[in-house]
Design brief:
Elements lengths: L1 H13 L10 E9 L2 E6 L16 H7 L4 E7 L6 E7 L7 E7 L5 E8 L18 H8 L4 E3 L9 E2 L10 E6 L6 H6 L5 E3 L3 H6 L2 E8 L2
Antiparallel strand pairs: 1-2, 3-4, 4-5, 5-6, 6-11, 7-8, 7-10, 9-11
């Protein structure tokens, strides 16, 4: 039940709609390169995060990515408990978390995939990745969006405010740059929403620190 509450909160935040996934992911000869298997998109030879939504069980992942899949413990915000997740490419910059509806027996029925590692090669088909800045997100959304203040469990979580990205089933959390002035830092704290077009948001220009795609 806690897992459904958490996923529901994310879905409400992004007001998203279901999209179909048509592309394929091909492991190249099941070869390990730099401690991970390269994922090749047929058209662009890129790590396209959307393509992973086609996997609907841990068993499918293990079949395609031998030796690159393991289980780990995840934790819900605000002390709501823990769950078991599947991790692809664990311990590398291209680590991906898979969260399942059934996370105790069959580990299937995909709910969400998530990336959060700096310098990851993964990006969405829109080009969004870890480190994408607020100004770029605003352009892709084709209008300003909203985000929560920082330094609490839902800090930096975005809402696309009926912009272009609202249909992408995508949840993004932002983080403040390490170089932010303390005076600006204080203005963006707490359980309240800020508009991306505000002067303080444009000045500080937070970047994506966590990126999730939700399967509906």
């Amino acid at each position: 039940m806690k897992r459904f509450i958490y996923i529901s909160l994310i879905i409400i935040m992004i007001l998203s709609c279901k999209q179909k996934e048509n592309k394929t992911i091909i492991p190249v000869n099941e070869k390990v390169e730099n401690e991970e298997t390269r994922i090749i998109n047929e058209e662009k030879n890129e790590f396209v995060l959307d393509n992973l939504l086609q996997y609907n069980s841990e068993a499918e992942l293990k079949k395609d990515f031998k030796g690159q899949v393991k289980r780990a413990t995840g934790y819900y915000p605000e002390g709501m408990g823990e769950f078991t997740k599947t991790v692809l490419f664990p311990g590398t910059k291209n680590e991906v978390e898979f969260i399942w509806k059934d996370d105790s027996l069959h580990f299937n029925q995909l709910l969400e995939i998530k990336v959060f590692k700096d310098s990851t090669n993964w990006k969405t088909k829109d080009g969004i990745t870890i480190g994408t800045d607020l100004r770029t997100l605003e352009k892709l959304n084709k209008k300003p969006f909203l985000f929560y203040g920082f330094e609490w469990d839902y800090g930096g979580m975005t809402s696309w405010d009926n912009g272009y990205l609202v249909n992408r089933n995508m949840a993004v959390s932002l983080a403040l740059p390490e170089t932010v002035d303390f005076a600006d830092y204080e203005k963006l704290l707490g359980d309240s929403q800020f508009k991306s077009s505000s002067k303080i948001a444009q000045k500080v220009n937070p970047t994506v620190s966590e990126l999730s795609l939700i399967k509906k």
